[in-house]
Amino acid sequence: TNGQVLAYDATFNDWFPTTPASGSLWSEGTDNEIFYTAGNVGIGTNNPEDDMGLHITEDVLIQTNQGALHLGFPGTGNRWRLSTFGSGANLAFRSRASGTTTYNTQVTFTQDGAVEVGDNTTIESGTVSLGSNNIAESGENLVVQTRQMNVGTDPGVYSPRSYIIRAVQNGTFGFAIFNTNGTDNRWEQYVSNAGNLTLYRQNTFRGFFDDVSGNYNPTSDRRLKTNIVGMNSVLPSIMQLAPKQYNYKTHLDRTYNGLIAQELQEVFPEVVRAADTREEDDLQNVLTVDYGQLTVLGIKAIQEQQEVIEAQAAKIDVQTEQIATQANQIQSLEARLARLEALLKD
């Protein structure tokens, strides 16, 4: 009732209303508010902490289907609202900008261990989600200041070296890069038991970087191929190629040896591909060269050239034998001529 206060009875662990001898320290407003503007309030303690408006030593229950905990400025000022959803199963931090009445979810903790920062509503059990569904929004950057970030199911810490990011793969699953969420257009890489850096695309093996030499080894297994036919003659086409020496416009201090993609495309179009780049200027769909295929074309040209060399060698052998026979014949004729000359002198 008006003028009474709540007192705590530690013996019965209960609260009860009472009228203080000197009158109530609480004031009552016109809209059923009660307030206390002097000193500190203690709940569960008769010695509240100095400079603390409220000191509670007992558990506090906020029934979130009825209310929430608000932190911030009064009126229409900036404010955070701490409450739950899902019948109390999940905890949400929501913020309200000054001058508005709408609260937006910023941080969520779910009962099954997921943590979400942002407004991504597709968060799964046991995951941590950062950012929003709309990556075009401002503020979608993550800054991590750390000596070493260790990632994996049980990565531990590697003290000898300070890697910025250290990932311990899960079996034969390492890094995966997706073109867009929800599609299978992806590349994967992991370190095999043999130590090779292995590449997959669309869950299909593509090749590996050798653990000793660092050379890239693409797939070439017959079981992966079809429409296998022998190659036609390439030597005349090889002779049309014009190797060049050049600099890239971005690095005039470095000299390279190679071919010009546009020129090569006219002779061997199958080894030239237009790259799907993100540039929007005249370098969009820039041409690239598969120099690995040129190695095979070089092998075929050498084989053809070797056939010519062997044919010429065989022809030379025949001609050499003919010359030797003719030389023997000449020697025989010269001997006969010498005997005839001797008989005539006699």
Structure description:
This protein has 346 residues and is an alpha+beta fold. Helices cover 19% and strands 29% of the residues. The chain contains three helices and 23 strands. The strands form eight sheets. Strands 7-8-9-10-11-12 form a six-stranded mixed beta sheet, with no helix packed on it. A five-stranded antiparallel beta sheet has the order 15-16-17-18-19, with no helix packed on it. The chain is rod-shaped, with a radius of gyration of 43 Å. The relative contact order is 0.03.
N to C succession of SSEs: EEEEEEEEEEEEEEEEEEEHEEHEEH
Radius of gyration: 43 Å
Major sheet strand order: 7-8-9-10-11-12
Distance between the termini: 172 Å
Regions with little confidence, pLDDT below 50 for 5+ residues:
none
**Strand-residue proportion:** 25-35%
Q: Which structural class matches the secondary elements?
A: alpha+beta
What's the average pLDDT?
Answer: 86
Helical segment tally? 3
Largest beta-sheet characterization = 6 strands, mixed
| DSSP summary, beta strand count | 23
Tell me roughly what share of residues is in helical segments.
Answer: 10-25%
Shape: rod-shaped
